[in-house]
Design brief:
The protein is α/β, with parallel strands linked by helices. Helix content is 40%, strand content 14%. The chain has two domains: 239 residues, Glycogen Phosphorylase B (Rossmann fold, 3-Layer(aba) Sandwich); 154 residues, Rossmann fold, CATH 3.40.50.2000.
């Protein structure tokens, strides 16, 4: 049996999707330790996993891409902040390796410094990706723009023209900082941001059909295991079971991105509609100045898992966590992407037929009201997709993917 060290940035949306797979590995007899967000540690320990917090200096580096004036600056800003965090998460990961003495390493896709140290360590390691796979493949639209797939000659020409532009754009934002970290560690520099996915022994992507396009040309090292829903155990709030109109959940990002405008628009759009609305505002709770309405309930946080079967629809910024949970529960979605990976996730929602999408820049109360009614009507399709997903076992698939590294000759100590 192996000792497995998992490392994530201080973001709940990057550690919670790992939990079912880690628990399955532990059930198989492996020794698991997680280095992650401080506010996740108690939850992971309660779930039976050994866990400690990352270096507090990582948290002091704010990911402030939401302040950017445009999409290009948002990308550059976010990557600068992640690289700055990497200056701390690399040494932090070294300390975790020294303390835990692992046989296998799991490193999140956003922990750039830890990825470098994993590669230097010589241990078998996997990159964990709790979102969509940005790798190029025939028929897959260029990543980051939320483009719809397009077949035939026009689609092939469009993709051939735009993919290099997208790769160059991400490269300009990512590579200077990442290559600085690599040079300092004695590693060769990368020529393309897509080269990041060639560095680990495995890439474990925690999504799959239908929230990812069908892929047939992936390297053997890339495993798409499916979304693993997990919330800390909690009961649904009492008010959710009270008789009344159907519930609509409106949720802002757990990693603050300035999306409280979604909550404000939702109040305006739905305050006179035949729904009860639950707003979960996360870090926007103190910043969102929202009007009151009889059918609106405002909270900072409610665990999503226990309330999914009470919802008629979910209105969301299109974070993978809430989207994955809603899709597996058969709840239709209204996606309002603001940035980051959200335009791509929103596109997957519409392509899968489990919801509708409105870009944040085009959001109005009238459009949101229409979208909510449209999404509610898509429930039969959403439930059909959920029934298909019931036949999958992402936790087992994740553990199997890690198990390949465990059985590698390199794990012999």
């Amino acid at each position: 049996m192996a000792r497995i060290l998992a490392y994530t940035p201080p973001a709940l949306g990057h550690v919670f999707p790992l939990v079912p797979g880690l628990q399955e590995l532990q059930r198989r007899g492996h020794d698991i330790h997680v280095r992650t967000a401080p506010d996740a540690v108690a939850h992971l320990r309660a779930a039976g996993l050994s866990a400690d917090a990352v270096d507090e200096r990582i948290l002091e580096v704010e990911v402030a891409d939401f302040r950017a004036a445009n999409d290009a600056e948002r990308l550059r800003s976010g990557q600068r902040d992640l690289v700055e965090r990497g200056r701390f998460d690399g040494p932090d990961f070294d300390r975790a390796i020294e303390r835990f003495r692992p046989d296998v390493l799991l490193v999140d896709c956003m922990a750039y410094g830890a990825q470098v140290r994993a590669q230097v360590s010589g241990l078998p390691w996997a990159m964990t990706l709790p979102s969509l796979l940005p790798l190029r493949e025939r028929g897959i639209p260029p990543y980051g723009l939320g483009l719809a797939p397009r077949t035939g000659v026009t689609g092939a020409v469009r993709d051939a023209l735009i993919w290099p532009v997208v790769v160059k754009m991400f490269g300009k934002a990512m590579l200077p900082g990442i290559n600085e970290l690599r040079r300092a560690a004695g590693l060769p520099v990368l020529a393309s941001p897509l080269d990041l996915y060639d560095q680990p022994d495995a890439v474990i992507c925690m999504t799959g059909v239908p929230l990812e396009y069908h892929r047939s040309q992936l390297p053997a090292s890339v495993q798409m295991v499916g979304f693993q829903p997990w919330d800390p155990p909690a009961a649904a709030p009492d008010f959710i079971d009270e008789p009344g109109e159907p519930w609509i959940l409106v949720t802002c990002s757990t990693e603050y991105q300035g999306d409280e405008s979604l909550a404000r628009t939702a109040v305006e759009a739905l305050r006179d509609q035949p729904f009860r609305v639950l707003l979960t505002l996360a870090d926007a709770y103190e910043k969102a100045d929202l009007p009151d309405a009889p059918n609106i309930t405002k909270v900072k946080f409610v665990p999503h898992g226990p309330i999914m079967d009470k919802l008629a629809a979910v209105v969301t910024h299109a974070g993978m966590g809430i989207v994955g949970k809603a899709t597996r529960a058969g709840v239709p979605i209204v996606a309002v992407p603001f940035g980051r990976d959200q335009p791509e996730i929103a596109r997957r929602i519409t392509e899968a037929g489990v919801g509708v999408s409105i870009p944040a820049k085009k959001l109005t109360a009238a459009k949101l009201r229409e979208a909510v009614h449209g999404a509610v009507a898509m429930r039969p399709r959403a439930q059909a997709v959920a029934r298909d997903l019931e036949q999958t076992d992402p936790a087992r698939a994740c553990a199997d993917a890690v198990g390949v590294l465990v059985s590698s000759p390199d794990t012999a100590r």
